[in-house]
Amino acid sequence: MFHLGHPDNLSGEGEGQRIARSPFHLRLRRETALHHETLERQLDLLDPDLSLHRYRLVLESFHGFYAAVESELPRLVATTPSLGFPLRARAELLERDLLALGLSRSDVAGLPRCADLPRLCRTEHLAGCLYVLEGACLGGQIIAKALRGRLPLTDDHGLSFFVGDGSGTGARWRLVLDWLEDLVRRGALADEIVASARETFRSLGCWVEMMGASR
Description:
mainly alpha, globular
């Protein structure tokens, strides 16, 4: 399964419980659970029979999604209350992994990019999208740990996307959740943030399916 967004206890049980007390965070978890689980089933990256070929297909599909989404985010960040954390270029990590798996830079540049993106027009859309993308980094820690040794991959050779911020992942996630809570306190529309998170899950799931990377 691709644990995308919800394993909040990675930083330790106490910290995870403290994070999970946030009412809005709990609402996001609850109201995106079905979409989250659907995408997990599609990808199933903890499948013992996962092949290197399908792993590469997943990375290629992710690159097409992340590269397209990340090109839109700076425009929204410029009109949004301070994030309190820097954006990360996850598409660059995906490119690094794909190069390690044998693609050339021209191969990566020629990969399809997702055109059916979630709406990214206002702060609430940014918030919902980042909830999904940043939450995926938590699950990435689980995936990286599981795939080390199972496939011919290391942290610096094919796993850099899932390793992400490594030991700093939990601390970054707390900053993201604090920012989301602050947005709602300042008057951002909680319903729209939730809707955007769900739309982000749906968009990524449809793209993965279209790219033939599903289980």
